[in-house]
Design brief:
Structural class: alpha/beta
Subcellular location: Cytoplasm
Mean pLDDT: 97
Helix content: 40-55%
GO molecular function: glycine hydroxymethyltransferase activity; methyltransferase activity; pyridoxal phosphate binding
Largest sheet: 7 strands, mixed
Strand content: 15-25%
Number of helices: 19
Bound molecules: pyridoxal-5'-phosphate
Low-confidence stretches: none
Organism: Epidermidibacterium keratini
Shape: globular
Family: Belongs to the SHMT family.
InterPro entries: PyrdxlP-dep_Trfase (IPR015424), PyrdxlP-dep_Trfase_major (IPR015421), PyrdxlP-dep_Trfase_small (IPR015422), Ser_HO-MeTrfase (IPR001085), Ser_HO-MeTrfase-like (IPR049943), Ser_HO-MeTrfase_PLP_BS (IPR019798), SHMT-like_dom (IPR039429)
Radius of gyration: 23 Å
Number of strands: 17
Length: 454
């Protein structure tokens, strides 16, 4: 930091403050973690200075031998860790990984057959009406994914994201009584909509998914099954999710981020069956520019860590801690979406405390508990204020928290929410944003949090 400080002290100061903030609070954001020192250090090197467009051994720049090495090592670890036939480790993020996957599926299923029919090898050989006709077909495909309020992600076909602009989109929700995925409903929606791509995966669904069933549905309607395991990749890597709960053997294409439960650098990976490999490997230049050598190197280090037996112990603890936390909340009167969890995340309906998600998020933050508000199924407060708080256990499990610690965290959370009430707007009406907390409660809770972190 002293080195950075000589150039731009504000950046050095913010970086130091971020370390203090992350260490001094209960980090319960389900998509965050603490990467190891080897992973962090690998990101801060001159591997960042090299351009290497193309793929391993086939670059559009000279002198890419060291980037070839780190990209190969990362891909080798990803394949071994997840038992995947192929791994592409260049995507800079989860969104990029999904974009590569979408276009690789379009290239494999729409573009390649069209070129083959015309006896052509390359889209550049298409001219005039043939090119316009292919463009029209690429832009006229259907995608079915989980709805946002049931826990799906923006990249699964929602209009604010490019996935909702490039595909005709429909979504499947969850059962209104149980909050669980209803596979018969997914199958019925797939039969009617006939998507080219069926997306499974989530950001805020607290349960496991049966990927064998999802694949059966995809096969029945001729869809490509794309699983986005960004959130639960660590549980797959750590062998907590096995059999039908492991998406990799069932999905044609699997995408993930590397920085959530997998505990690596920020980034994405695409795993795929051999038929999709040629198109996936063209992620650059299809939708990506030059790969980030320093981040691919850090992915290799994180994936090597995830192949150690200790990562399986960690992943099991993440799931056990989520159970303990969920039980702790419910025992103290908390109402959970789906009535519990069997993965790494918990979705609490805070309307039973008379609060919006926004009020609960702010009150918890004042007390040193960092979470994010999240819509719940059929949320009356919409996506901005929401009625839910999403919690996740990966980060604090990395810090060594066990089930007793998580029970205490549940107690702190319920104390804060029980001691918080709705504030008023300027004209005296109940507000969805402002809140009032009992005197001294935030400080008392922050002290409790600090004790746990000691
Ligand atoms: N896919 C899922 C399921 C996610 O939860 C997220 C991020 O929250 C993403 C993709 C996007 O990842 P990134 O923020 O790295 O683009």
């Amino acid at each position: 930091l002293d080195v950075i400080s000589t150039v731009e002290p504000r950046v050095a100061d913010a970086t130091a403050a971020e370390l203090r903030d992350q260490r001094a609070s209960l980090k319960l954001i389900a998509s965050e973690n603490y990467a190891s020192l080897p992973v962090l250090m690998t990101m801060g090197t001159w591997m960042s200075d090299k351009y290497a467009e193309g793929t391993i051994g086939h670059r559009f720049y000279a002198a890419c031998q060291n980037i070839d090495t780190v990209e190969s090592v990362a891909a080798e670890h990803a394949k071994a860790l997840f038992g995947a036939p192929h791994a592409y480790v260049q995507p800079h993020s989860g969104i990029d990984a999904n974009l590569v996957a979408f276009w690789a599926i379009l290239a494999t299923r729409i573009e390649a057959p069209e070129l083959a029919e015309k006896g052509l090898k390359n889209v550049n050989e298409l001219t005039g009406e043939d090119w316009e006709s292919l463009r029209g077909k690429l832009g006229n495909q259907r995608l079915l994914g989980m709805s946002l309020d049931a826990g799906g992600h923006l990249t699964h076909g929602f209009r604010p994201n490019i996935s909702g602009k490039m595909f005709h989109q429909q979504s499947y929700g969850t059962d209104p009584q149980t909050g669980l995925v209803d596979y018969d409903q997914v199958a019925a929606a797939a039969r009617e909509f006939k998507p080219l791509i069926l997306v499974a995966g989530y950001s805020a669904y607290p349960r496991r998914i049966d990927f064998a069933k999802m694949r059966e549905i995809a096969d029945e309607v001729g869809a490509t099954l794309l699983v986005d395991m960004a959130h639960f990749a660590g549980l797959v890597a750590g062998k907590v999710f096995t059999g039908n709960e492991d998406p990799v053997p069932f999905a044609h294409v699997t995408t993930t981020t590397t920085h959530k439960s997998l505990r690596g650098p920020r980034g994405g990976i695409v795993l795929c069956q051999p038929e999709y490999q040629p198109a996936v490997d063209r992620g650059c230049p299809l939708v990506l520019g030059g790969p980030m050598g320093h981040v691919m190197a850090a992915k290799a280090v994180a994936l090597a860590e995830a192949r150690q037996p200790s990562f399986q112990t960690y992943a099991q603890a993440v799931a056990d801690n989520a159970q303990a936390f969920a039980e702790g909340l419910m025992r103290r009167g908390g109402r959970l979406v789906t009535g519990g969890t069997d993965n790494h995340l918990v979705l609490l309906d805070v309307s039973s405390f008379g609060l919006t998600g926004r009020q609960a998020e702010s009150a918890l933050l004042d007390a040193g508990i960092v979470t994010n508000r999240n819509a719940i199924p059929a949320d009356p407060n919409g996506a901005w204020y929401t009625s839910g708080i999403r919690f996740g256990t990966p980060a604090l499990t990395t810090r060594g928290f066990g089930t007793d610690d998580f029970d205490r965290v549940a107690e702190l959370v319920v104390d804060v929410l029980s001691g918080t009430s709705v504030g008023t707007t300027k004209d005296g009406k109940p507000s969805k944003a402002s809140y009032v907390t009992e005197d001294g409660l935030a400080a008392r809770t922050a002290a409790g949090a600090a004790e746990l972190l000691d």
